[in-house]
Amino acid sequence: MASKETVLSAAKQFVTFINKTPSPFHAVNEVRQRLVSNGFCELKEADHWTIKPLQKYFVTRNQSTIIAFAVGGKYQPGNGFSIVGAHTDSPCLKVKPISKITKAGYLMVGVECYGGGIWHTWFDRDLTVGGRVFVKTDIGIESRLVHVQRPILRIPNIAIHLMRDHNESFGPNKESHLCPVLATAVQVSLQGGAKADPPKPSETSTQTKSPLAPNYETLADKHNSPLVTIICDQLDIKPEQIIDFELYVADTQPSVIGGALEEFIFSPRLDNLLNAYAACEGLIQACGDESLQHDPNIRMISLFDNEEVGSQSAQGAQSALQEMVLHRLSSGGSQTAFQEAIPKSFMISADQAHAVHPNYSDKHESNHQVALHKGIVVKINSNQRYASTGITVTILREIANLSKVPLQEFVVKNDSPCGSTIGPILSAGLGIPTVDVGAPQLSMHSIREMACITSVYQATELYKGFFLNYPEVYASLQF
Q1: In the structure, what pLDDT confidence band is assigned to residue 217 with cuts at 50, 70 and 90?
Q2: Which pLDDT tens digit goes with each residue over 165-195?
Q3: pLDDT at residue 203 is higher than 80
Q4: Is domain 92-201+211-251 classified as CATH 3.90.1150.10?
Q5: Average pLDDT, the chain
Q6: Strands across the sheet with 264-267, in order?
Q7: What is the pLDDT of residues 360-395, one digit of tens each?
Q8: Model pTM?
Q9: Stronger pLDDT, 144 or 417, i.e. the higher one
Q10: What is the spatial distance between Cα 348 and Cα 350, in angstroms, rounded to a whole number?
């Protein structure tokens, strides 16, 4: 076992990472920066790729998905790929394209529910926004990241005096009740801001708008002025420069190390930024010695967006992106190099797992009660909601033994629904042998989740060990 100091240090570095990532765009940007600082070069999808042994590369799509890889010194087209896959998105509230709402003297922000969040946990939290803004400049259109560091939004609960059954049956209407407050109309007026509800132009007006008119003429009609002002102040731009933005609502309370013995991580977005971070760190650390010189494989991490809504997007795991990247890396060999590479390859689908809940232990299968600190979880489902098979679990066990990382097993109760991951999607689409794993946690899909500090270190060590040892383990197989 690693020392408490080593485990805690790894957890603290992860906490620093997650506090900078209120959106998938920020997560990918942080991963990108870590890769660049460790010698990875960026490729563009539209460019011609020239791949060389011992070199390290990455490619992004939509600024929310990133695939990074290191080419083994003995790699030839037709050799295998060692892949760890994860996702960059989490359940959240997203600002609507037209978010301007005024109700009962409050200026509010219209939001859309993204994924399967536990929405009541978003009430009475100090909220902010983060995401990307498309800005018109003198040289063209830029995409800029924004993260407002102070609380500007709140979804207030209804007082129990006005809803006596609040504790027994609180089920908020996602359209009418889950709407954050931004400001009051009276304060906006007193401080000289735009009126909450500017008059609409008359339908009979003869004045017509030029089709070449800039977008900012309608920005005030789409979003309440305080929100626009805050975004402009953050980026030091004028409202007329904003073409559009894509904003995620996020909690301002930072991720922290907690518990009486400093053994927990209390944080948003553990599902699944813990595995996205650990996959990146595992790849970087695995490339930090001479082992890459002798590797016949390409070591790869694939961090996809939109897993929480089914992965069916241009930047999701159901897209052709993964297959296209593997095809490009197999080029230069025989006509069947890609097909030859697939059975030699292996993928770890890394997504968070359910630890046994002390207050709801009856919700967990009695022989598969996953615990914090006791290892990375192997997820198995006979109905193929997870991609693990007897072969892929056996391979993982050997890798875990070599990496000195303990494993646990999880299956869902027969009378409970089972979630899924990118594992079945990619294994079915590509035919790559895949195993589903994850770090144990509580409060999954809450605005504040809970995991243990041990998981960051264990996940990083497992993924690093996979990159280092998979070719040797594969060569030992006699079936």
Answers
A1: low
A2: 888 888 899 999 999 999 999 999 888 765 4
A3: no
A4: no
A5: 93
A6: 256-258, 264-267, 449-452, 440-442, 353-354
A7: 999 999 999 999 999 999 999 999 999 999 999 999
A8: 0.93
A9: 144
A10: 6
Tokens 């390290």 correspond to 56
Q: Where in the chain are the domains?
A: 4-90+268-476, 92-201+211-251
Which pair of tokens denotes residue 211? 């089709």
* The amino acid at 109: V
Tell which CATH classification among 3.30.450.20, 3.90.180.10, 3.20.20.70, 3.40.630.10 matches the domain 4-90+268-476: 3.40.630.10
Phi/psi of residue 130, nearest 5 degrees: -150, 150
Residue 112 tokens, joined? 């859309």
